[in-house]
Structure formats: C-alpha cells, structure tokens
Records
---
Amino acid sequence: RQLLLDQLPDAQVMIVSNREPYIHNRENGEIKLQIPASGLVSALEPVMRACRGVWIAHGGGSADRETVDKNSRLMVPPADPTYALRRVWLSEEEQDGYYYGLANEGLWPLCHIAFIRPTFREQDWAMYRAVNQRFADVVVEEATCENPIVLVQDYHFALLPRMIRKALPKATVVTFWHIPWPNAETFSICPWREEILDGLLGSSILGFHTQFHCNNFFDSVDRFIESRIDHENSLVSFGGRETLVRPYPISIEWPPRGLLNQPSVEQCRINVRERFGLAPDTRIAVGVERFDYTKGILDRMRAVDDLLTMAPQWRGKFVLIQVAAPTRSKLDAYAALEAEARNLADEINAKYARDNWSPILLVVRHHEPTEVFELFRAADACVVSSLHDGMNLVAKEFIAARDDERGVLILSSFAGAAYELPEALIVNPYDTHQMAKAYDRALTMSEEEQAGRMQIMVAQISERNVYRWAAQMLFDASWLRRREKIVPSD
Ligand code: G6P
C-alpha cells in the first residue's frame, strides 16, 4: 500500500467504470448495501481508498437515488468515508443499448472466445456512443484541474478516452481493459473496429492483463488504422499522439481484508458442512463466480460426473459447491446458461444421489466477500475453469484465504492468472477427463505438496498485489507527465 501511496500524484485522480463499488437496494422496505461481484470492483476499491479521489459509475441500485446528495454524490465506503462516489443515472433505454447490447452482447463475446456469437446492432452502437459522451461530460464536470489523472475501466468505455482527450487535452488518461483482447481476425468482426481503436488510442496509457493481449491489440492496430508501432518501447503513435500499451496484471489487496474476522479454518469447515448438511468427512471443491458462460461452469460439473464414474470411491464423499451470482440475466445467453446449468446439476445429482448426499450443490445468489472467504477456507479445492478470462481474481482470492497453506487450486490455462500461478493444477476446461483427474489429484495431494505449492503462490500474489498494479500504472503516468512537460506532443 505504501508503494501506491508513494506514487500518488498531486493531481486529482478519478476512476470511471460502469459498475459502482457500492449499490444501495431497497428490500422489504429497508435500504440494503451490496458490494457487487466484480473483479474490477474488488481490485479498484482498495486503490480508491488510498487515492481519495472521485469514482464515477452508473447508479444501478433501486435505492441509489435516495442515498446521494443533490449532486448525485456520496462519500464511501459507508463505514469509513474516504472518497466520493458520483453516480450517473442511465435510463432503461440507455442501459439496453449501451450495457446489455453493445457492451455485453457485442464486445463481451467478441473478446472472450467462448463460442457465443457477438451481436452488433446499429442502435446499440448509437447508445454506446451517447453514454460514453455522458460519462465524458461528467468527468469534465468533476474535474478540479486541467490535467487530472482519469482511470478509465473496461469495455464499456472504449470511446471515452478520446472524448476526454478532446475536452481536457492535458488530462492523463489511463485506460485498463479488464477482459482479453482477441486476435485481429476476430476483432475484425466488429463493424466499428476503427472507431473503437481510435477511441482507445485517446489514452495516454492502455493496459491489458498480459503481453499476449497487448500483442493482439498491436496486431489489430497494425491491420486497421494508419499508425506507427514502436514495439521496443510499447508505444503506438496515432494522430500526433503516443499511447503506451503495456501489460499490468491485476491482483488483489494484500494483506487481504477478507481474512479479517474470519474464524479458524477448522471452524469454517464446521460451519460450511453444517450449512450444507454435509457429513464431517465430506471433501469439498468450490466454484465461485458470476453466472457467466465464460466461466466454464457446465464443464466443471461434467468433470464431476466423469470423476464419479472414473473413481467411484468418491461417491458419497465429495461435493462441488458451486456459488453462482446472477448477472446480466436479461440476456438470452445468460438465461439459457442458468437453465442448462440447473438441468445438468439435477441430471448428475439424480444419477449418483444416495441417502442425504448429492454431488453438486448449486447456489444461485449473490454472496458477500466474508461468506466467500468462509467457503474458500472450508474447501479442499477451488476450481476456476474459465473458457477464457482476462485474469480471474477468484483464483487469487482463494490463495489469499488459505493462511493455513492447505487447499488446491485447479486453474484453467485460458485464464490470465495461469501465467502467474503455474503451481496450480493447470487444466484445459474443454478436456473433461483431464479436469476429472485434476479433482482426483487435488483430493489425494499430500499436505506437504499442498503447502509447497501454496507458499510459492502466496509469495507471488503478496508481492504482485493490487497496490503494485495501480502503483505501476501511476508510476508510468507520472513518468509520462514529466516527459510531456519537456517533450510536449503536438
Ligand atoms: C467483469 C468485467 C467488469 C464487470 C464484471 C461484472 O469483471 O470486466 O467490467 O463489472 O465482470 O459484470 P457486471 O456486468 O455485473 O458489471
């Protein structure tokens, strides 16, 4: 954290993201606070607490309007107010076009290779442009100087960097793309590929999780717009300006706040086994994510089926607890996935159920971080079987939760995290039998081996934590600002 604080500039820091870090909902007449299930939010929240700036986001909660002042602002975190959350109100029409349509039916499947066809509609694109402009206007409204540092987040805002650059030419715009960047051939599907590249190249810095995604971006730029790429220095020159394009692998905070006030691992095991009505010696694998088709939830269930056929000794002795938070449920692909997952769980359970035992426990609801940590601490293994994922912070959180150095991480080779955590059991989620064998291997791994792998992964994550992620971007930003004073761009 000190690392980050050392990098903090005198300038004002703003974050723009679609999803807000705190959502107020009205439930049964009462206002309830929810922290959303989003890797982006869990990574940026600690950064903002350190920066004390302004976070601009869509106010999507049913009681959000009741909790802000007349400028649509409130100080958060509610328990210890340190920074301002500025909510932007979007109409249903705006959300349909910009968020559900272009962002989540177009760009999301375009960037994740999960074999869901991207859908691009002209009216969604118009709405996406309009909403990006609305956020640009709010950035200008909130700016207290001519050169703020604006941290733009994710695929909801590909056009925003250029819009901010036009309104505040001296701003330092640091954009982070939290999802993969596809190869140029795939990217070419997008009817507005040139506009998207132009929008992003309004950034001073553009970050991806891995070098691989940066290279895909360079290839797309090379193919679709007139620009100069300096591979040696990771710079793209376009329209008289340069953008630094670099990998910044995102991470989690360290020490992890989720560990605070957690009961002992032993107690967590008792609590979770009681809650799910499991016998004390039941072995547990957990999966925790948003109910998203990129996460490979069906694949890990099929692997349980395979495991119980291949190694029948686990019947009655092993369960997969799958926590899935409802997400984007308005979209057909998400509704279809949920129905299919429920059917598959029922089918597998019917095939093997005995006495009071079923192998798959599917819990579809939002879980608060403390609940998730309790589950992690109670588990023998955590399974992250993404078909494609920018980074995946669940993998890192599981490791953070295990201060007892026990538990095995089963990790998809298609998650960015696999580059940093090769000590996990790395699997191809499309290979059901390989995953089944990984479950078996996890359940039979010696305690020494578990501890050995965990120690290496803990060293990696504690060192490369989210403060370092943010500090590295701010460090690069301040280098650019210093350089700009001496060598101004046209
Ligand atoms: C991914 C995206 C984030 C998004 C999160 C949750 O991590 O990269 O931008 O916030 O999923 O999705 P949601 O649509 O619920 O915000």
---
Amino acid sequence: MEINLEQKFAEQYGVNPHAVYFTPGRVNLIGEHIDYNGGLVMPCAITLGTWLAISPNADGRHRLKSLNFEEQITVDGNLKHDKNGSLWVNYPIGIINELLQDGKQIPGMDFLFYGNIPIGSGLSSSASIEIATAFALNDYLNLGYDKLALVKMAKRVENDFIGLNSGIMDQFAVAFGEKDKAIVLDCETLKYKMVDVDLGNYVLAIINTNKPRELADSKYNERVAECQTALSLLNEEITLHNLCELTADKFALHSHLITDETILNRATHVIKENDRVHLAAKALNNGDLEEFGRLMYASHQSLKTLYEVSGKELDAVVDFCSTYGHVIGARMTGAGFGGCAIAILEKGFEEDFAKHLTDYYVDKIGYAAAIYISEIGNGAMKH
Ligand code: ADP
Ligand code: MG
C-alpha cells in the first residue's frame, strides 16, 4: 500500500485501528456478459485493491470516511439507512443494512477506506469495497457468515440498493481469488474450479482507456433485458432457465424463433462466448497460452460486433495489441463502454509497449490511457 492507513486512521479518529483488511479488484480473463446468463466466466483477483481499517467507537454511531472521496458520513448504528444519492457511502451502508436486516447487532464503528483501483473503470472497485466491508465486519464481529454468504450479500447490495443488475462474478472473484490462479465459475450452480495460470514468459497488462463514463449502467441493464427477451422467445420451443444452457449447435436449431437481428446477435455472443470459456480453460490446462490469446481476440471481436459493448477507445487498444509483435491476446474486460482492456504481453517489453501504445492511443483518441502491469493476487483477507 502506498500510504500509511494506520497513521491516517489515527489522524482521522484519534485512535489506532483495531484491524486492517484488504480486498482486491478483479479482471475477467474471458467470458464477458455471461454471468447474468448463467454461464462460465474466468475472473482472477488482481493486486490493486481496497484497504479498510476499522475500530469500534464509544458513541454507537458509524463514521465512514474514504481517502478517495471528500464526504465523511456519520450514521446511527443500529438503524437501516436509505440510499444517499450516488454517494460512495451507499456501498458500505448497503452492507450494514443487509447485516441489520439479517438480525445482527452492529456496535458503532469507525471505518477508513483507501483504494488504488482506478474507480469506475471496470476493475470492480465497487465489489471490492462491498466485500471489504462485509468481510471486515464478519471477521471482526465474528458474525459467522461463510465467504459465499458474503458474496451473495454484496451482490444483493449491488442489485437492490445500488441498482445495477449485475451477476455474481465480481463479488465472487474478489472474495475467492487466489494468487496465480483463475476461477472458472459456473454462475448458475456457483460451482467453481481454480485453474493455474502460468504466464511463463508473459505478463498481464491492464490498460485503462480513461474514457469518461456515461450511460454505461443503463446500457448494461439494457443488455440484461435483451438477453431476457432472447430467453423468453427460445422458451416458446424449449425450456431453458438461462441462455448458457445451450451449446452453439443446439442454439442453431432454435434460433429461428428470434427474428430481431439485434436480439439474435446478443444471444449468439452469449452462447459462443460461453463455449470459448470451456476452450480457454482447456488451453490453460494444456499450457497453450497462444490458443488462450486467440480466444481473447475472438471474445473481443464478438463483444464489439455482436454484443456492441466495446467502443472506439477499447477497440483502439485491442487493435494496437493485435499489430504489436509481443502481445499474444487482448480484449476488453468488464462491462465495456470504456473501462479497461487486458493484454498478455511478453516479458521485457513493458516499457516499449507502454510507449508505443500511448503514442498510438493519444493520436487516435486525444488523451492518454493508463497502463498497469498486474499480478494475479489473493482474494479478501485480513491485512
Ligand atoms: P467499478 O466497480 O467499475 O470500479 P462502479 O461504478 O461499479 O465502478 O463503482 C465505483 C464506485 O464504488 C465509486 O464511485 C464509489 O462510490 C465506490 N468506491 C469504490 N472504491 C472506493 C473507495 N476506495 N472509497 C470509497 N468508495 C469507493
Ligand atoms: Mg462495479
């Protein structure tokens, strides 16, 4: 951590924190816009994340402060609270509400957050702050939840309190991640396997397009609705709970039910992307990174043309990667419409890549992207 959170906590609240916790952000290696369609995704935790220092206080109220934001909020301890506009405190407050709703008593606590995940860039700083809060309170107060219960709680906060109809992938990844492993997660059954990611002579580069975010949440909810439309049309002939129950072959037998081209494209992306995750897991197990990289490019192409969630910024990054000699795979990651891309970059070319990508990107887009080299790290933990 590049700042001394204990010291900042003491400056803020006049006492030392009793405990400090860390929860990472995540990237999804492949399997995009799949989680809410009940298919397979392949996220991993990264080494950027959110730290949370906590201490109980004497006045029975919660005091919440983040070093990333101006507003500090004080709320009554054992009362549920309404959503407060789009303030950052909604995320921890949402978790506290869930705990109260579940009958837990929470003594007044002081909270200090700090995150180094670029916020609102698709690396799941929101899941990170949710799980950081839930994990810390559960551990410190011995509330007795298992990790999966915390993941489901954080998803409810994101869906019902914040209002984003996202699937379970983000919360799952930042809670369950393990160093140098990807999680192959079935979003319908929540069964998962950890797969070794041996990058060998390559590193994981994360490229933030720095595109100002607009309309991303409403476009996201629109895609969720389009998939539901496809599902109900298919259900006229077969019984399906979600699109990812279909293989591409089986889908071809029933796709005539979808006459709207846009809806057909959305469903086609989902079903083929789900197949690609199976292939990508096989490629990793076989140590075939080149095949993995090809699947990443194919995923991006599908997200760009069929699912229409990319954009000129993400496309510029991936176009550059595909012509730069030392990248074997690249794609947008997360919901899209801006946010981040990832690339599998040959070791030793980090600086050269950053320089040439920056020149290319500034020329095309007019401002710079930010480039991080990340390791695959561990999930939520006591620091
Ligand atoms: P993403 O999850 O892609 O980073 P979101 O819009 O889903 O973007 O979540 C970002 C929001 O999460 C921020 O606007 C803020 O409200 C909250 N948040 C994330 N990290 C922090 C932090 N370190 N401190 C306070 N709030 C945070
Ligand atoms: Mg988010």
---
Amino acid sequence: VSLGVMASGSGSNFEAIAHGIINGELNAKIQVLVYNNPDAKVKEKAEKLGIKAVLLNHRDFKTREELDQAIVEIFQNHGVQWVVMAGWMRIITNVLLNAFPRKVINIHPSLLPSFKGINAVEQALKAKVKITGCTVHLVDLAVDSGPILIQSAVPILDDDTPETLHKRIQVQEHLIMVRAIALLPHLENQ
Ligand code: GRF
C-alpha cells in the first residue's frame, strides 16, 4: 500500500511505520510525510529515513479547507492510496475525506469512544479508570470517531503521571499502528 502520513509532533508512530516497512513486516511505502509544525521532531526522523517531508504550516492557510486542499494535492501528486494520521493535531474537513473516502486512518491514545479529543491521557487519569489504551480507526467527520480497526488496552498504575502513562500507551500505539496498516489491503473493497 502507498501511504501518505500526516504528523504534528515527535513522530514516533511515523517511525514505527517506517521501521515496519524496513523490517519487512509491512508491504507498504511511505510516499510522503506532511507536517504542520516547523519545529516538529518528525521532520528530522523523515530526513534520517530518507522519506520526503513537506511542511504545510497551518498558520499560512485561511481556512481548514484550504490546508486540507493543499494536503490532498501533495498526496495525489505522490500517488498516495491511504492516509495515516499519526498524531495530526488539527481538525480535518470533508475536503480530505472526499478525496480519500474511507481511506483515512487515525491513532488516538484512549480506548474510543472514551476520552475523545485532546488530553486523552489526562482525561483517563482524571476519570480514575483502571484501564485505558489506544485505538486505530477509520476517520469520519466527527473528531476521533469512525469504525474501529484495532485497540490495545493499557492498565493505569497507582503512581502513573500523564507522562509515564502516555509512554506505555505509545509502546502499544506503535504495535497497533503497524498491525492496522497490515490490514489495509483487506479493506480495499469495502
Ligand atoms: C500519539 O499519542 C497519538 O495517539 C496522538 O498523538 C501522539 C503522537 O505521537 N494522536 P508521535 O508524534 O507519533 O510520537
């Protein structure tokens, strides 16, 4: 599968996908990475891996739709079939979803439908649940919603801070991200 990845942050999920491809676990190619934050660490990771990275700074666009249109053009020009939101911290619009219908996946650090939106890890701690986790799902227009592909559960420990918990969730994120991408060819005809 031909992937276009969108990321805003450190890029550990992006790196997990790239390693899955290098290891031969995934039969896929990352055609291009789009990132929106000039300081995002994901940029250096892409450079090291020899993957093309394009900065689209959301501050340069008047509307969400215009940003998404620019993303769509880059992905279409690079032959992208599947879009992976790997820590994309912007709300997306129909412009992206219409260009890639049922072909956009997202990773979220909670067991959806619990704890949607930002600060999902803090939300789980505050709610005092004993188990949280992470989810990869197909994206629809609402934030952190759409058919779930894979989830992984992570226990919350008594002395967890947002940082320690997020770290353990991320170990699971990297595993389910790779497994979800391996599933994509089986979803092609749905
Ligand atoms: C992940 O926790 C993901 O679930 C959330 O943003 C974070 C991105 O982490 N949506 P990274 O940039 O892949 O390290």
